[in-house]
Each structure stands twice: as structure tokens, then as C-alpha cells.
Amino acid sequence: MEIIKAPEFENDDYLFRVDLRLIPTGKDAIEFLRRVEPGSVDYYIEKRRAFNEQDTNPKIFSRFVNDRPSLRALSELDSLDSTIYTVACERENHTNYRDIISGVSSHLKTKVSTRRCVVRFANSFNKYFSSEVNVPSDVTCLSFIHYLSSGAKLVFRASDVKNELLVDVLTIKEFFLDPVYESYVQGSQLTVYSSTAQYASSWNNFAKTMRSLR
Questions:
Q1: Where is 144: in which H helix or E strand?
Q2: Which domains does the chain have, with CATH numbers?
Q3: Helices (H) and strands (E) in the chain, counts
Q4: 3-class DSSP state of 18
């Protein structure tokens, strides 16, 4: 893990890079979490299932609310159509998730030097604004993924370093990066940027966990 910019205070930004090939997925990710962050294992398993089955029922995370206060608001919503990224990408791009992945893979294979392969997750301004001043709704933290032949870049508008970032990296890698980079190109670098970081005081713990990847 190479840290370009660490968050120095609450809501500061961060930027880091890591070798994509070192990040585990599936059963390997579960074993990794059992070793470095056992309290996240069940949450990761449930979120991974939700991504795979595109389950947007907020009740699926109810049992994790006490340990993860960031989920408290989500458990009261009608649908998690932004938190479950395999659903969010379909909603914002009007295309089936698997067709999006297939299209990205094909595009990187035929246009190796492209800089235009971006998948958007961010909600419209109206939804963000309405969620703040009117009725609370599910809004995504991941803004977009920029796919390049050398690797991918994740851009977050907000990132919960303590409760979500590690699980986000693991699930995004499995569902949005592995299907692309294992099949067609030799991309090996993952760059992650967030314009705001919540629980920034947990950054050193997160960095220590990422640096344990070998």
C-alpha cells in the first residue's frame, strides 16, 4: 500500500494505491478478515450476498446496527438501491450490471489506451438534496469507477474508514474489478480517493491492515 495522502482530520480527503492482485476475494477474503478484523466477517458475508443477489432490503443489515452506527439510518429506509452497488450501477446507467461489466471488459480489450471508460454510481443532485432536507433516502458513497488498462480508480464522495472502507474495497474488487481485469487486461493497480473521510482517526488501523496484504 502506498499512501499518497492520509486524512489528517475528520472529513479530510485521502488517496492511496495498492496492488490489485494482493486484495483477496470470496473465501480468501473471509479468511483474511478472520485474521485481521474478525468483527467484520459476518457483515462482509451478508454484504457480499446482497451484491450477488441484488438484495436491497434494509433489514438485511439490522443485526449489525449496534456494532456499526453508520448503518442506523440505512436500517430505517425503504430500499438500499444505492448502497448495493450492483443495483446502483444499473439505476444510474440504465443497463444491466452484467452487461456493464461485459462492456467495460470488451472496451478495455479493444481500446487499450482509452481514458473514457467510467461507470457512474453517484445519485443526482436532487436525490442528495432531497435526502438532506426532505425525506431521508439511500444515497451512494461511491461516485464512480474509472477503468484504465493499467488498473482502476475508485472515487468516493464520502468514506467511513472505520466501518465500511475495508469491506467496500473487498466487495468492489470482487464484483467490479476481478471480472474485468482477470479476463482481458493486465491491470494491477488500484487507486482509491475519497473527498471526505469519516472516522478519520481509524486511518492508521486501516493502513496497517492493508499493509498486511502479501
A1: strand 142-148
A2: 2-211 (3.30.572)
A3: 8, 8
A4: strand
Task: Provide the pLDDT for residue 205.
Answer: 96
**CB distance 117 to 107 below 8 Å:** yes
Residue 124's pLDDT is: 85
Burial class (CB in 10 A: 0-12, 13-18, 19+), 28: exposed
Low-confidence ranges of the chain (pLDDT < 50): 184
- Return the C-alpha cell found at 77: 429506509
d(CA 183, CA 133): 44
Sign of the C-alpha dihedral computed for residues 148, 88, 20 and 153 taken in this order: positive
H-helix segments, the chain: 26-36, 41-53, 85-93, 97-110, 125-133, 165-172, 178-181, 203-211
Q: What is the pTM of this model?
A: 0.94
**DSSP structure class, residue 134:** S
